[in-house]
Amino acid sequence: MVALTDPDLLFAPETRTLARALYAAVKDLPIVSPHGHTDPRWYALNEPFPDPAQLLIVPDHYIFRMLFSQGVRLEELGVPRVDGAPVETDGRMIWRRFAEHYYLFRGTPTRLWLDHVFEHLFGIDEPLNAATADRHYDTIAALLQRDDYRPRALFERFNIEVIATTEGALDDLKWHRMIRDGGWQGRVVTAYRPDAVVDPDFEGFSANLDRLGEITGCDTGTWAGYLEAHRRRRAYFKEFGATSSDHGHPTAETANLSDAAAQELFDRIRRGSEDERERKLFRAQMLTEMAKMSRDDGLVLQIHPGSWRNHSPAVFQKFGRDKGFDIPTRTDYVSALKPLLDCVGLERGLTIILFTLDETSYARELAPLAGVYPALKVGPAWWFHDSPEGMRRFREMTTETAGFYNTVGFNDDTRAFPSIPARHDIARRVDCAFLARLVSERRLREEEAHELARELAYTLAKKAYRL
Amino acid sequence: MVALTDPDLLFAPETRTLARALYAAVKDLPIVSPHGHTDPRWYALNEPFPDPAQLLIVPDHYIFRMLFSQGVRLEELGVPRVDGAPVETDGRMIWRRFAEHYYLFRGTPTRLWLDHVFEHLFGIDEPLNAATADRHYDTIAALLQRDDYRPRALFERFNIEVIATTEGALDDLKWHRMIRDGGWQGRVVTAYRPDAVVDPDFEGFSANLDRLGEITGCDTGTWAGYLEAHRRRRAYFKEFGATSSDHGHPTAETANLSDAAAQELFDRIRRGSEDERERKLFRAQMLTEMAKMSRDDGLVLQIHPGSWRNHSPAVFQKFGRDKGFDIPTRTDYVSALKPLLDCVGLERGLTIILFTLDETSYARELAPLAGVYPALKVGPAWWFHDSPEGMRRFREMTTETAGFYNTVGFNDDTRAFPSIPARHDIARRVDCAFLARLVSERRLREEEAHELARELAYTLAKKAYRL
Amino acid sequence: MVALTDPDLLFAPETRTLARALYAAVKDLPIVSPHGHTDPRWYALNEPFPDPAQLLIVPDHYIFRMLFSQGVRLEELGVPRVDGAPVETDGRMIWRRFAEHYYLFRGTPTRLWLDHVFEHLFGIDEPLNAATADRHYDTIAALLQRDDYRPRALFERFNIEVIATTEGALDDLKWHRMIRDGGWQGRVVTAYRPDAVVDPDFEGFSANLDRLGEITGCDTGTWAGYLEAHRRRRAYFKEFGATSSDHGHPTAETANLSDAAAQELFDRIRRGSEDERERKLFRAQMLTEMAKMSRDDGLVLQIHPGSWRNHSPAVFQKFGRDKGFDIPTRTDYVSALKPLLDCVGLERGLTIILFTLDETSYARELAPLAGVYPALKVGPAWWFHDSPEGMRRFREMTTETAGFYNTVGFNDDTRAFPSIPARHDIARRVDCAFLARLVSERRLREEEAHELARELAYTLAKKAYRL
């Protein structure tokens, strides 16, 4: 019987021998996951995961967006409605619908991740389709009941050295506290994500600022008090292991206003008398403020710009955020980041990691910027580009100008916990294949490729994220 | 003697064996040509084609643009002048000029298409150049006189299952009527192309609307009457097999005005008192109106945006439209299509096929949009990108996010009838080579690749275009 | 002992045999270097080059930008400060710092160029790192003292048939005069670079215009006199072999004002009463003026747009221009060049070579434009894209629409004289590898590939630049 995933996955025939050798030396390195969206509650409570559909289908926007594009309704996949109207709750029914449509994922990373999970985590060796759906479901459901498939056991089995979750600025981090105080040895850290209190367009922004004031004991009615509240929250997050902050702005625009101008802008926004332009300016200013705080407190600043969130208002109203309707847009960095870079771009102690959904910026903007500004690094291929072709293009378009050492290893960036080893495995394979090609074309010596394979799989992430 | 085109054309050595096997199973599938610009008159009258130059050189903008770029005058190639001034009419002379410059096409798809035509249609096995020009010419000219080289015989020899032509909204479809009523079994359908009556910048727009009113018996002086006229023309086109409409706007901009606002805009335009902004808005609104009609009458909506037509006014004045001076421009889809998508993007019964001349939109915009909106599909690599590298990039940049099943197979999009088998052959080869690579890297199982090869070569086009 | 650079460098295993054969026939062709920045003083005086660090590190922005991005200070690398503050002057210390960080260049073209120089020019066969730094330094330093390592000897050893330098419009060309009058047979020509007298944002623009008037005896206070001054300087440059002019504008914008409007604009600028928009317009107009002069005097016009110069004001203030802080920006050509093309784009006697730092324009804009306008050619992959991946993308994205014959061969574009053979060698290798792939996929016949390899390595540059 042929396995679902081949030992030579992602290795092209012409450079396979060398790719195998490079990969063999890094495949068992511990996983460093410096940026992601798993739920700290899992690690804190260590309860069994729910049924296969609730674990693998319902929360995965890669999956339901594809099925939706081909006519399946989100309700049929168990995606909850904002109005509480009934949706499918039978895990087996959801699973069958998914299995029938699994062929849609041919050629996509979702297919590679899931086949990897089926085989390596659940020991399945037959392809998923309508005929095999129930067998897959039963196998997975049974295993998920076992103690060695609970979150902490998987964490250990996955050989995760450290994983970062992402929490909003107002989060009390109680699950992180429970993990920290509970005596388990797994290293789970948080990251500071202040979108809800830096973006005036965020739902409940004004109330969020009030709440920020209560939590921190700062007067968030004033610019100075508001900044101090951020500083205190950042310090609080650092107590729970945070080494980074994360910022999901619509664009990479930054600003560097005088203190007086920033204060006046803040006052207008606090009074609710600002316009669209000022809301944008405030977001822009806050990226620079965050960078200045990072310079002081050492948190690595991650910028994830360029996603048009909730593109379909009809879907947003019915199902809420994160339903597969976030669409990439053209993103400028060279002029957008200039105010921030003029302020802190030459700082040697600061690390700012830039991500993009616009691959045209790799060779034209991100590599040239990160290849000269000491504070900048290029984050890995992100989201739609976290895929074999996407990762290959990332290396081909950044390496010649920024080198490997202005990149930061891999991010799985996922809430799909069972797929974490698959995602790191695929990243390691793609990087090894890329390095093998460089060696085969004599652009790199073999011993250098070995060194780099390790850096890309493990060391760079630890170093860049200070983990 | 070596053939002009090799059986292994476009198959890379490292994956050749598998590519051959995939291709062998699809190469003889019938041709489905859902979008193109052949002349229905050919099929209606079934007269012999003209001389080799008039058939293959004079109407082909890929060819004369390249020669023009290297200093050959359009007059020397027989391209007619608007003012009726004399141009070369001797087919042999034109052919010789072309043959002398044939080396310019090295590395281009035109070279692949023509060598394919020379060998497979005309049985020629020596390369075209100045020395062989006359032999090629004589061979082709002689064959074109034979009955088995007339349009219907070629149609059958080419194994065309169905071909769509494209006619303007005001066309009387008399050739299509003649084909339909003539008893020939070849399936030739039309497509509804209303640019001349939806684009206020089109030559004679106002008179075109009057004419549209006459043809349909609708009052095209009113918004309601104008829309009704479209509905009737669409119904008329459907009588002649149309399953699609086609729209060649300069951008992908859409609008969704209230009925009152649309009516007011139409009135201004009808009075000729509109400005540039309103002309753009009208085109944008009409895309949405067409999409709504498509929802109702089932015509597949094709959007071909982003070409700057007639870039050189001097050439336009001397030689008119379609003279190789249409230049691609940067094209936005994410914000441009939003009004249309907000209106009908979630409709499961509607199919909108998006094309682009801006490859940066594949991975960033088109695949993410088509990978979630049920109404959207991504059309194949178009025009300058209908080429081996262009098609490869298309697959590499769309598949991981949109999958194969949100694409729609191949369009030859040509008026060069003799080259249709060559174009489909090259598309099939490129797709088989791409699939072979996925299998060789273990990203797909071999039986899946076989299934997909058939879908890409044949089934998807039939399904998407409802043919 | 393994050589630093392999004979199969840049040849992929699957097409290696053919790539080798193609390369073998072109590797010893003379170097034609039609655009670059070497110092004519070197050839005029023929003095020994300075120490290894001053020759290879201090002036190379590719090198110090990478080290700076990883925390090394420019002062430590000997980069002079504007305020004359002390910087490292000990060549050996600079060399050691560089050697310690040489691993940063893995995967970059700088690494390929330098290893090539170390091996082929200096006979070194061990990799550079901290341990070998001194040995490399001593070897190179000793050789640089030898007569056969002086500029003219290297010029001859490098088999340079002709090299162009670049001089500002106000340059007296005294070194060129010395070369011309000195009896040496090496062919060194100048190129006309008038940025300082066509860009109102250039430092000292107004004084530059006064100086231009003095030099030429023209009244540069009037538009007519100013244009005449350009004509005279161009004629003067032609006396020293110039066959081209070069223009480094921030964008590709052009304008074609009436003579009256141009004169009025010039007057405002001369009075210093212009605004930002008018300065842009003036630069735009001057590109068209230069193109018209090129039509008349035959100088090939090179446009190098799209670099945001001196992105960091702090670095600019401390270290001045050309310190690695020039960042590419998104660049439009289709609308930007239209005024110029409407004016002279159809001229068969004119050659305009377009460069870009925005690779998205290759397939979308530059190839379609150069594939039809007789006056346009596409320049080779430039600057950050002068690299194996960059050159491969260039061929993949331009060839299918523009062919090979609307491109112009290779430019080394460098001031790093010792690396010139390395750069041409890499370009020849990449082109041969690309051609080998086309042959291996049967898209080209082998004898055509041989012909093309020679064109790309040698002939096209001579022809396009009229050398």
TrEMBL record, chains A, B, C:
<dbReference type="InterPro" id="IPR003766">
    <property type="entry name" value="Uronate_isomerase"/>
</dbReference>
<dbReference type="InterPro" id="IPR032466">
    <property type="entry name" value="Metal_Hydrolase"/>
</dbReference>
<dbReference type="GO" id="GO:0019698">
    <property type="term" value="P:D-galacturonate catabolic process"/>
</dbReference>
<comment type="similarity">
    <text>Belongs to the metallo-dependent hydrolases superfamily. Uronate isomerase family.</text>
</comment>
<comment type="pathway">
    <text>Carbohydrate metabolism; pentose and glucuronate interconversion.</text>
</comment>
<dbReference type="GO" id="GO:0008880">
    <property type="term" value="F:glucuronate isomerase activity"/>
</dbReference>
<dbReference type="GO" id="GO:0042840">
    <property type="term" value="P:D-glucuronate catabolic process"/>
</dbReference>
<protein>
    <recommendedName>
        <fullName>Uronate isomerase</fullName>
        <ecNumber>5.3.1.12</ecNumber>
    </recommendedName>
</protein>
<keyword id="KW-0413">Isomerase</keyword>
<dbReference type="Pfam" id="PF02614">
    <property type="entry name" value="UxaC"/>
</dbReference>
